[in-house]
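Dear H.,

Thanks for agreeing to be a second pair of eyes. The structure we're designing against is below in token form, covering all 659 positions.
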């Protein structure tokens, strides 16, 4: 246990297992240890030169005059340069002037897609280029131009990527809203972003049912008068209302459109997208990313962290409604010239082996998902993946929450067959691209740690006064220097950008996460600092207690929260879901409390264990501890539940006010 004055969090859990890269993986890896050390050294010695070298791997219409203009906390990267992100994702792979290897990607599969009902579509780089150009011409014919904002509210179909790329090509800032969000959420975001146009579909498929996207758009637009046009993709084919003067079918829009489109040269700082973070607390904020730096960050990290090779079949399971879908379903893989897989529907439809069927049938080699999904796989049981041949896989990834060591071990053993490195990638909507992660051919992995910061990223764990914490001392995760793919501002609220990210700790970017670094310099993220529980003066992170619970063989998932306790300040309540086939009982509760005592110590022992069949989560899968905290303290929830995935979960846990 090591706390210190000014440190927000104490660290109590130790993980001793180690996984060095296999000789085989090391031998074929894109990045070896010598090259990596060279990159670290260059980034340290000459950060601007380091990022300029990364930028030169992409195409610019005009070069920059300055790599970075840093007026804290305002950054401009690649000042004076012009480029086009869609050109770099598409034309660059077709343009034989850039050399045979790049130009030869025309027939390579860019997107391999499977719909929930089982329909399939593959688009080569040449075909994707043509579709994007046609749609960009179609949007332009509706008057969309550089600087406009366009909302995208689509299921996970190839057209979602086409729409994003067409906007990027034109210089229209896109704001993707996850198809699972409500009409109200879409309306609020469209109003905040000042959008003029919405791209949607009649509906999408989810667990065999139609998600009524167009109906939601009609309701949203009724409250967002700035929306002049709605483009509608026919996906489900069911009957929808259609306002002919406002609505236009996607297929009509592109019917006569040319497959040629000259990509304009856009300023490196041209706003590329606004993405609203629902977050587990508070009002959504519109995170603004720009073109050049974002492109450089996602391109470099996609190739490093996923060790991408020409013949990989890469699958990130995220929806394009999240930043992971932006950076690692669409832009990163396409910049890298990779084959990116998309699957529209639910992971357990028609049965809980759907994802493994997709892996086997498409020969997926790299698989990137979230801990919430991995814990669901654990809960469903090993029999489901065992039905399929997963031997094509060679690398696994995780993102979105701390991954509990036991879930990591399960993922590595059951999905990865013990042979695939697991890259645990730490980043945020705000950071644009991965900042802390293993390099799979070099890094010795420790389950539960996202390991080291990538070259060029000055990550640290600090006390409130900004000084670095010692080894294994819990503190605040910060980034000391700007990086190209960082957010530039919060849309319409620059003060919030300054106060939320750059004021908490003097002179550095404050991520809002608690973390520690071990003696090897590895980072261990311990959860959001807002979720820290204070027991008798000890500040405990949620991650470590939850991981202790998940290390018990009966437990699939756990969320711990504090509740007021006269004696200790806060007591610990744990919400626990068990694996399929396990029956919960008071005896199991007692056993779990004893298990935490043994793993961590009596201090972290939950005062109460509550069994639940599911935990309340945001639609991107993060546990909403805020709601559980309220429930544990007062027996009811009155706070904002608009970002909650499934209200029924909360009702079963104890009810909300509007029950
Ligand atoms: C958490 C997702 C631990 C963290 C890309 C962060 C993680 C927030 C990890 C950002 C990880 C993400 N280990 N925690 N590997 N990855 N987080 O904006 O709390 O949806 O601040 O971006 O997720 O979530 P966001």
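And this is the sequence the design step returned. I haven't edited it by hand at all.
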């Amino acid at each position: 246990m090591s706390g210190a004055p000014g440190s927000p969090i104490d660290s109590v859990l130790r993980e001793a297992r180690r996984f060095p890269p296999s000789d085989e993986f090391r031998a074929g890896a894109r990045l070896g240890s010598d090259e990596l050390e060279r990159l670290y050294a260059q980034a340290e010695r000459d950060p601007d030169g380091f990022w300029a070298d990364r930028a030169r791997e992409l195409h610019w219409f005009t070069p920059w005059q300055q790599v970075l203009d840093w007026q804290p906390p305002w950054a401009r990267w690649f000042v004076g340069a012009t480029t086009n992100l869609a050109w770099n994702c598409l034309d660059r792979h077709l343009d034989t002037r850039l050399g045979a290897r790049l130009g030869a990607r025309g027939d390579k599969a860019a997107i391999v897609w499977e719909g929930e009902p089982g329909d399939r579509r593959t688009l080569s780089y040449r075909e994707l280029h043509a579709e994007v150009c046609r749609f960009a011409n179609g949007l332009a014919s509706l008057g969309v131009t550089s600087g406009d904002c366009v909302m995208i509210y689509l299921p996970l179909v190839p057209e979602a990527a086409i729409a994003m790329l067409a906007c990027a090509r034109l210089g229209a800032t896109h704001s993707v809203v996850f198809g699972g969000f409500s009409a109200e959420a879409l309306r609020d975001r469209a109003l905040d972003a000042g959008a003029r146009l919405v791209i949607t579909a009649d509906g999408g498929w989810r667990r065999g049912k139609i998600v009524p996207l167009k109906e939601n758009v009609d309701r949203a637009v009724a409250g967002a008068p700035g929306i002049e046009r709605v483009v509608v993709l026919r996906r489900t084919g069911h009957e929808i209302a259609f306002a002919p003067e406002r609505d236009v079918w996607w297929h009509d829009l592109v019917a006569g459109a040319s497959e040629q489109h000259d990509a304009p040269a856009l300023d490196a700082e041209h706003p590329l997208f606004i993405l609203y973070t629902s977050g587990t607390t508070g009002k959504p904020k519109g995170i603004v990313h720009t073109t050049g730096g974002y492109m450089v960050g996602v391109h470099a990290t996609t190739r490093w962290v996923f060790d991408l090779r020409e013949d990989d079949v890469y699958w990130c399971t995220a929806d394009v409604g999240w930043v992971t879908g932006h950076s690692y379903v669409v832009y990163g893989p396409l910049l890298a010239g990779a084959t990116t897989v998309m699957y529209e529907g639910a992971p357990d439809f028609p049965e809980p082996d759907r994802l493994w069927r997709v892996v086997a049938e498409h020969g997926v080699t790299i698989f990137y998902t979230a801990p919430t999904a991995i814990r669901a796989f654990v809960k469903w049981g090993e029999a489901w993946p065992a039905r399929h041949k997963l031997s094509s896989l060679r690398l696994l990834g995780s993102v979105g929450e701390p991954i509990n060591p036991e879930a990591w071990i399960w993922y590595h053993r059951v999905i990865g067959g013990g042979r695939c490195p697991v890259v645990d990638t730490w980043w945020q909507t705000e950071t644009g691209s991965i900042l802390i992660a293993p390099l799979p051919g070099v890094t010795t992995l420790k389950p539960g740690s996202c390991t080291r910061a990538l070259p060029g990223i000055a990550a640290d764990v600090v006390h409130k006064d900004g000084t670095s914490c010692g080894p294994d001392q819990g503190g605040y995760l910060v980034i000391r220097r700007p990086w190209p793919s960082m957010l530039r501002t919060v849309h319409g609220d620059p003060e919030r950008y300054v106060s939320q990210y750059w004021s908490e700790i003097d002179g550095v970017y404050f991520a809002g996460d608690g973390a520690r670094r071990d003696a090897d310099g590895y980072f261990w993220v311990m959860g959001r600092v807002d979720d820290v529980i204070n027991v008798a003066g000890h500040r405990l992170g949620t991650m470590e207690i939850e991981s202790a619970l998940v290390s018990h063989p009966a437990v699939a998932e756990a969320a711990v929260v504090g509740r007021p306790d006269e004696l200790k300040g806060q007591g610990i309540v744990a919400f626990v879901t068990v694996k399929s086939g396990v029956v919960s009982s008071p005896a199991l509760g007692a056993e779990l409390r004893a298990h935490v005592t043994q793993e961590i110590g009596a201090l972290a022992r939950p005062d109460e264990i509550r069994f639940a069949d599911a935990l309340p989560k945001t639609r991107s899968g993060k546990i909403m501890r805020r709601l559980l905290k309220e429930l544990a303290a007062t027996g009811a929830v009155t706070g904002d539940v608009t970002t909650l995935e499934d209200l029924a979960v909360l009702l079963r846990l104890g009810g909300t006010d509007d029950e």
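Two observations from my side: The two ends are 42 Å apart (CA to CA). Residues 535-652 form a domain with the GMP Synthetase; Chain A, domain 3 fold (CATH 3.30.300.30).

Warmly,
E.
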